[in-house]
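Our consortium's second objective concerns turning raw sequence data into structural hypotheses that experimental partners can test. To show how far this objective has progressed, the report includes one record in full. It was chosen at random from the queue rather than selected for favorable results. The single chain below, 501 residues long, was entered without modification.
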Amino acid sequence: MRTTVYVPGDAAALALGADAVADAIAATAAARGIELRLVRNGSRGMVWLEPLVEVVTAQGRIAYGPVTVDVVDSLFAANFPSGGEHPLRLGPTESIPWLARQTRLVTRRLGVVDPRSLADYIARGGGEGLRRARAMAPAAIVQAVTDSGLRGRGGAAFPAGIKWRTVLEAAATQKYVVCNADEGDSGTYSDRMLMEGDPFCLLEGMAIAGRAVGADRGYIYVRSEYPHAIAALQAALAAAGDFLGDGFGKFHVEVRKGAGSYVCGEETALLESLEGRRGIVRSKPPLPAVEGLFGRPTLIHNVITLASVPDILAQGAAAYREHGSGRSHGTLPFQLAGNIRHGGLVEVPFGLTLRELIYDFGGGSRSGRPLRAVQVGGPLGAYLPEAQFDTPLDYEAFAAIGAGLGHGGIVAFDDKVDMAKQARYAMKFCAIESCGKCTPCRIGSTRGVEVIDRIRAGDRAQIELLEDLCETMVQGSACAMGSMTPIPVLSALHHFPEDFA
């Protein structure tokens, strides 16, 4: 009887030696005369346990981790193909508490399916949302997305249904669906993990969106730093066959590689890059939903937003809306990074507190020291002190404290962090990554670095100047790059003034 073993091909697992582990398992099985089926799946998201190896047994999938090459022989000696006892044995994968406590909707197949097998995707419930969408009128699909309460998961949290309806009602002979996979925020990796571990889910979401708004072409704009995601998407497209086609014609998808510009995560700069020009922010209006790619109505969402759509169509808008709190419906895959004991991907409904996330799931700091600050929402997100750790993770609760959830990235810092240095980093980051179109962002960030340096050197009179400069950037910048850079700066200044003394 052939034994099936799963070894992640996710970028994080590869960085920790997953390829060598897979080779060692295959070689050891061959030497012992064990017939083996080796599947390179995506990651389950427990990064501290990578490479996490799973074996299919009569009791289900049994996990072992972190597995290194030097323990492979001992695994087989312990009857690993049958789920035998071993110091690295974690038990049934689905029963691992860190996974069992989550509510996995958009990431339900991460680490479960073979990302290059359409048949495996269909067998695990994939395709049901697209099948139902094909039996619905476009306006009904848009209404389902609207009723679900889905909001953009890229940071702005704009209601998806409004965007979809605008594109649907725009009169044009050609429309587009664009996936913004230019995931550039520090501490974020959910888009990458989904593209590498469940690419058909993204393709299905795009096909549903195309059917809903009247678009027959889609583009996935992936950052060049994600070669494994690009390869997985291209393999999925090659295997898709008629999956993306229907009686109304085939939905065509192309993968385009970005050149590493952070500002191309802004949707209009992304469109400029897609059209072959330098990624510079466009003036709005017109909105991309009215006049976007090549001047045509364009629906733009990030990976997690589009990948949430198949489940909404398959299970129903009401079922999706039941999750969450207040006006924040559904779930969000949060990504734990920085000085954290158990870093990884955690999908939970909105409403959990930040403290529960970083302690119950994250396990506190990796250093063992007290956590002093947590940055939520990427390099332009607010730094939150321990006094705000009990804030519920939902859009309105975070807006009330001058913060935002962004793409769900969480970066933790212990009590040795210099918050004035972190504020300087935010300004320097903006100065490096600004597209240069508007003066408040281009020049303001450069002057901001200089002002913070003077404050750190002891000139307290410069604090008022820094606050005025931040106000100018907020009010005068052309896009979120410049208008959001003051958020981490001012939050650090407000919550940790002693570091600026």
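The partners drew two points from this record. The longest strand covers residues 331-338. The chain has four domains: 3-100, 118-321, 324-414, 419-500. Both points have been shared with the crystallography group to help prioritize constructs.
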